[in-house]
Amino acid sequence: SSEAALWQEYTAPDGRKYYYNTQTQETTWDKPKALEASTAAGSTGDSVENNTGTPTFTEAQQQAAALAQQQVQAQLAAAKAAAEEAKKHDEESIKESETVEAKQVDKSRPVSSNPVAGTPWCVVWTGDHKVFFYNPSTRTSVWERPPELYNRPDVDLLVSKPPEEKSECTFFEHKEPEVAKKADDEGKTASSEESDDDEENAPPAAKKSRKEKKLEKQRLEQLAAKKEKDRPRQMLEKQVDPAIQAELQAQKEREEVPFERRLQEFKEMLTEKNVSAGSTWEKELSKIVFDKRYLLLNAVERKAAFEAYVRERTEIERAEKKRRAKEARENFKNLLEEAKLHGRSSFSSFASKWGKDSRFKGVEKMRDKEDIFNEYVQELEKKEKEERKERKEKIRKDFIAMLMEKNITSRTKWSSLKKQLEDDERYKAVDRSSSRESLFREYQDTLPEESNSDIEEENDRQKRVAAEAAIEERKKEVEAELGEQLKERSKEHEKHKYQEHEESFKALLIDLIKSADYTWHEARRILRKDSRYENCDLLEKDAKERLFDAHVQHLERKRRELLNETKDITPSMKWREAKKIIEKDERFAKFNISERKTERDYKEWMEERKEAVMKDFKDLLKETKIITYKSLKMIQENEQHLRDILAVLENDKRYIVLNNAPVERERLLEQYLEELDKKGPPPPPTQQEADRRRK
């Protein structure tokens, strides 16, 4: 069809086929529908010709067809006889015309070929002093100079001077432009088809004289020769690669438009074609090659602009991804607050209940969801623990205040007292009876003791003290007689003796009280059984209790220090894992404390250790000079600043110790950056000095 004739097929350097419309100058990778329809029609015609089936006719139709066939055969026989007769008389004139045509054709043949150094192209001259360019690697011939041969002095010399006629050679005959060969074949095919159509459709010709036939034949041959001579050049000019034509035209237009504007339009084209950040030039080329804006830049500029665009899109998508992740985390935390969780809530029950919520699905990885959940629940548990502790302490103080209102002595019995307190709300606030009795015993220990053993002990102590006081009194009398020098010596002696009693009591505590679980009431019973207890008479009851409390605190502190010294135990380790290490260590066995007490101490140590590590990390952030109030905006614009900050922090132990808690470490860093951003630039030093003086 006429539409199919407008399309031409070409082969790209990578072997793919593409199609060019000579009328609209459109280029496409996909085969046009007009060519597909033409190909389908040709295959249908072949199938019809090869069909062995015979159509059926009526008798009248068969007779008419036979009569027409006989007439045609008779006419053809007569025309054939006339043609043979005319052929004999015109052999000489035909030979002369063929000789002229051969000379004309020979002049268009290649006579010289010179390769261009550094390129696959050759400069070819024809016999009629025309020059074209031939690429033997791709078997491509073009009349116009390829872009690779621009600004080449050697090529200018080759195309400016034709070769001498003596050097004519038939060696290059096979290198005639393929486009011209195709045109010759197409011309011959077209002429043969036209002659066949004329023979089939023309009516029987009237008889002419020999002279008329001879003149007509010569005229037709000359007309055909002229037509064939002009046609190859036309076909050659039409067959120039449209991609090269477009590149040459674009090169002229690029000189008229500023580079910044062309670059901006090229980037807009990449955005409109949805070029992805992680793609490559070869993969995206098919999307953009047919756009007019593709030719706004040359080959080198296109590649560089594409790579810069891809890097920019990568940074933008990375920042957008981080922003979406942060927003998803905030929405997930809001969901946790709405879920009304408590310190013992489990992630599985939370996920089964809220798994269909969009805020739950917003965080992609299930592990991240569980980490955020556990962090939130741990905060809740810590808060609930503090509230329980405060509430328990308040109940204890109220109960002690209630006991102070009663006339309680060291000999008061709990069984008789609790009947008087049963109706009091402060009594009911303590849940367990054992806890009530324990608080009563604790309060009773603070009261003066009046038991028989205690009275006897106090009497003995007073006797010893009185004896010692008498001796001291006598010494004083002597000192008064001897003078001031003896007084100073006496004071030093008393002070030294008091220190001896204090050291003796401390040694007694070290030997007998090895567990921090003892109360002062229980420890005193143990200490009385030792004979060394009498050597501490100079110490009052309050002084002894004070030393006991200091000893218990020393035991607890020593146990905590032992946890710090154990390298296998980390602040993030769970109690089950730490318990195995503690049971194997003989140093912990010396403290002789219960498992429940050890677990409680471990959890308290872990919380204290965690708070200390977090405080050290905050101090590190304050000491890092690269972090300023501008850092948050700089990170949002370019993540390189964040990498610079991390490069400084990674060398400090206070950063490395938080490797087991990267989420908490990142949260503290973001919180510190947001605080600096809100505060803005620091005041000038003069203003700071003025504020300090006012304070």
From TrEMBL:
Region of interest called Disordered, as start-end residue ranges on this chain: 25-118, 142-238, 439-468, 674-695
Record keyword Transmembrane helix present: no
Keyword hit for Translocase: no
GO molecular function terms noted in the UniProt entry: RNA polymerase binding; transcription coregulator activity
Keyword vocabulary terms for this entry: Coiled coil, Repeat
GO (cellular component) term, any one: nucleus
Alphabetical list of Pfam families matching this protein: FF, WW, WW_TCERG1
WW domain boundaries: 7-34, 119-148
Residues annotated as domain FF: 259-312, 324-379, 392-446, 610-675
Protein name per Swiss-Prot or TrEMBL: FF domain-containing protein
Compositional bias of kind Polar residues: 40-58
Record lineage: Eukaryota, Metazoa, Ecdysozoa, Nematoda, Chromadorea
Bias kind Low complexity: ranges: 59-81
Compositional bias ranges of the Acidic residues kind: 447-459
Coiled coil: 302-342, 366-397
Gene3D superfamilies: 2.20.70.10, FF domain (1.10.10.440)
